[in-house]
Design goal:
- By secondary structure, this protein is an alpha+beta fold.
- The chain folds into two domains: 1-39, no CATH class; 74-138, Orthogonal Bundle (434 Repressor (Amino-terminal Domain)), CATH 1.10.260.40.
- Helix content is 35%, strand content 13%.
- The protein is built from five helices and five strands; from the N terminus they run βββαβααααβ.
- It has helices spanning 42-52, 80-90, 95-102, 106-113, 121-131; strands at 15-19, 22-26, 35-36, 74-76, 136-138.
- The strands form two sheets. Strands 2-1-3 form a three-stranded antiparallel beta sheet, with no helix packed on it. A two-stranded antiparallel ribbon has the order 4-5.
- Helix 3 (95-102) packs across helix 4.
- The radius of gyration is 29 Å and the shape is rod-shaped.
- It starts with 14 loop residues before the first strand and ends with a strand.
């Protein structure tokens, strides 16, 4: 194994050290440039943490961090452009009128109606509120 700082081959066990905010596997001579990290097995750490905080139970961290798609409960309907166009025309507004009302550009509205782009959530909410339509459906 090579030292992650100087690149020389490490003889014996590498040392873990925090150097300039980064934890590295380094040789014994480079370990002096940072703070050496003592490696504790996870079971020993868990047991020592319990001993210091009685009455508190610790759980192993989950393996996967939740992402934004886990929190989504809705999906944009397939023909959102047609629904927007029908509602806009039914209310008697042009692209420019609707754009002024929701404080967006008319060219953006035209692209959304053509379904060339998907509206951002803020724009979608403005359109739903102004045109009194629903552009999303609930996920199962």
């Amino acid at each position: 194994m090579q030292c992650e700082l100087c690149g020389t081959n490490i003889r014996g066990e590498p040392r873990r050290a925090i150097i300039e905010g980064t934890e590295l596997s380094v040789c014994s001579s480079c370990a002096q440039y940072g703070h050496e990290v003592k490696q504790i097995s996870s079971s020993a750490h868990h047991a020592s943490a319990k001993a210091h905080l009685p009455g508190i139970t610790f759980h192993a961290p989950s393996r996967r961090r939740p992402d934004m798609f886990d929190q989504m409960n809705y999906e944009l309907i397939d023909d959102y452009g047609k629904v927007i166009r029908r509602a806009r025309e039914a209310s008697g507004m042009s692209h420019e009128d609707l754009a002024l009302k929701i404080k967006e550009k008319a060219s953006l509205l035209k692209k959304i109606e053509r379904e060339a782009i998907v509206p951002e959530d803020k724009v979608r909410e403005k359109l739903e509120r102004t045109l009194r339509i629903t552009l999303t459906e609930e996920l199962e």
